[in-house]
Design a protein that fits this description.
Layout (H helix, E strand, L loop, with lengths): L5 E9 L3 E4 H5 L6 H8 L3 E4 L6 H16 L8 E5 L10 H9 L5 E5 L5 H14 L6 E8 L9 H4 L4 E10 L5 E9 L7 E2 L11 H5 L6 E2 L1 H22 L9 E4 L4 H10 L11 H4 L6 H11 L8 E8 L3 E8 L1
Parallel strand pairs: 4-5, 4-6, 11-12
Antiparallel strand pairs: 1-7, 2-3, 6-7, 8-13, 9-10, 12-13
Helix pairs in contact: 3-4, 8-9
Bound molecules: acetyl coenzyme *A.
Acetyl coenzyme *A (ACO) binds next to helix 2, helix 6 and helix 8.
Length: about 325
C-alpha cells in the first residue's frame, strides 16, 4: 500500500480571557515576579472561568482551525483530543467536542500522553490519513490545568495555564507535510509528575481531597533534568529519520514548559532565537495545548512559510516525549 503525503491544512488556538500575572501570584503564595521570570520565563497565564471546561476551549480553537482549513465540521472523519484535564473521565472530551461542533460522521477519542499528547495525536492522525482510511482528522490539545493546580503550592502554581490549540490534518502536495515522528515513553518515571487521586488506584474520597490528591504533583528538578536531556535528543532523532540535519531547521516549536529548557534545546541544535517559537511568557505551560497554540501563533505571525522545515518537540508526564519534522 502506498502512503499519501499528509500535513496540516489549518490551525487555530484559543485562550480564556482571564489573565493571572506573576504579580497576582505574589498575593497568593510566597513568590515574586523576578524569581518566576528568571527561573521559568513565564510572566502571565490564562485561566478558564468556572463555567469553562477543556471541551469549551477546544471548541473555539477547532472552529478557527476548520475555517482556516476551508472545511466544515461535517467533513471530519475523526477527532482526537489530547488532554490530561478532560471534562469528565467519560464520555471523552472528544465526544463532547464532536457534539458541540456537530461533526456528525466523525469518530472521536481522547489521548493521554500529557504534554507530549499533541504530537502523539498528530502521529495517529497522520497514519489514518496516509493509509487512506480517513480524509480529514481534527487534532486538538486542550487543557484546563488551573482546575488541577494547588494555588497554595508555589512549586507548581506558577507554571500552569489553560488554553487549546487545534489543527486539521489531511492530504498535502507531494514533498510536503510530515516527514518523521519520534514517540517515546519511560513509565518508570511516572511518579515524578502525576495526579494521585480520583482514578481506580485511589478513588476520590473526602480524605483524598483533604490530602490534596486531586492536584498535580511534580518533582520539578528531576523533570527539568529529564526535559533537558530529551528535548534536543528527540529533535535530532526526528531530523535524522527525515534525512535532515539541524542546519535545515527553519523554526523549532518546542513544548512551552520553561525557557531554560527551551534554551538548552536551542543550544544543542545550534539555533538562534529567531528560529525558535517562544510564547510561554504569555501562557505558561499549557501541557498538550502548548505546542498547537505556539504553532497557530507562529502561523498567524507569518513566521511559517511554504516549504519551511518545522520541528515540533515536547516532553511530559508518563514520562513521555515526542518530536516531528514537517515541511510546511
Ligand atoms: N517562588 C520562589 N521560590 C521558589 C518557588 C517560587 N514559586 N518555587 C520554588 N522556590 C524555591 C525552592 O523552595 C528552592 O528553595 P530552597 O533552595 O531553599 O529549597 C529554590 O526556590 C530553588 O528551587 P528549585 O526547585 O531548585 O528551582 P529550579 O531552578 O529547579 O526551578 C522549576 C523550579 C521552575 C519548577 C523547574 O525545576 C522546572 O521548570 N522543572 C520542570 C517543570 C516542567 O517542565 N514540568 C513539566 C510539567 S508538564 C506536564 O506533563 C503537566
Amino acid at each position: 500500500m502506498s502512503l499519501l503525503p499528509v500535513g496540516v491544512l489549518g490551525t487555530g488556538r484559543y485562550a480564556p480571557e482571564k489573565v493571572l500575572t506573576n504579580h497576582d501570584l505574589e498575593q497568593m503564595v510566597e513568590t515574586n515576579d523576578e524569581w518566576i521570570v528568571t527561573r521559568t520565563g513565564i510572566r502571565e497565564r490564562r485561566i478558564a472561568s468556572d463555567q469553562e471546561a477543556s471541551s469549551d476551549l477546544a471548541f473555539h480553537a477547532s472552529e478557527i482551525a476548520l475555517k482556516n482549513a476551508g472545511i466544515t465540521a461535517e467533513d471530519l472523519d475523526l477527532i482526537i483530543v489530547a488532554t490530561i484535564t478532560p471534562d469528565n473521565f467519560f464520555p471523552s472530551t472528544a465526544c463532547t467536542l464532536q457534539t458541540k461542533l456537530n461533526a456528525r460522521k466523525a469518530a472521536a477519542f481522547d489521548l493521554s500522553a500529557a504534554c507530549s499528547g499533541f504530537i502523539y495525536g498528530l502521529a495517529n492522525a497522520s497514519n489514518f490519513v496516509a493509509s487512506g482510511i480517513y480524509k480529514y482528522v481534527l487534532v486538538v490539545g486542550a487543557e484546563c490545568l488551573s482546575k488541577i493546580t494547588d494555588y497554595t503550592d508555589r512549586n507548581t502554581c506558577i507554571l500552569f495555564g489553560d488554553g487549546a490549540g487545534a489543527v486539521v490534518i489531511g492530504q498535502v502536495p507531494e514533498g510536503r507535510g510530515f516527514k518523521s515522528f519520534v514517540l517515546g515513553a519511560d513509565g518508570s518515571g511516572g511518579e515524578l509528575l502525576h495526579l494521585a487521586g480520583g482514578g481506580s488506584r485511589c478513588p476520590s474520597t473526602l480524605d483524598t481531597v483533604t490530602e490534596g490528591k486531586h492536584y498535580i504533583y511534580m518533582a520539578g528538578r528531576e523533570v527539568f533534568k529529564f526535559a533537558v536531556r530529551i528535548m534536543g535528543g528527540a529533535a535530532e532523532e526526528a531530523l535524522s529519520k527525515a534525512g535532515l540535519d539541524k542546519s535545515d531547521i527553519d523554526l523549532l516549536i518546542p513544548h512551552q514548559a520553561n525557557r531554560r529548557i527551551i534554551e538548552s534545546a536551542m543550544e544543542r541544535l545550534d539555533l538562534p532565537e529567531e528560529k525558535c517559537m517562544i510564547n510561554l511568557h504569555k501562557y505558561g505551560n499549557v501541557s498538550a495545548a502548548s505546542i498547537p497554540i505556539a504553532l497557530a501563533e507562529a502561523v498567524e505571525e507569518g513566521r511559517v512559510r511554504e516549504g519551511d522545515c518545522l520541528v515540533l518537540v515536547g516532553f511530559g508526564g508518563g514520562l513521555t516525549w515526542g518530536a516531528s519534522v514537517i515541511i510546511w
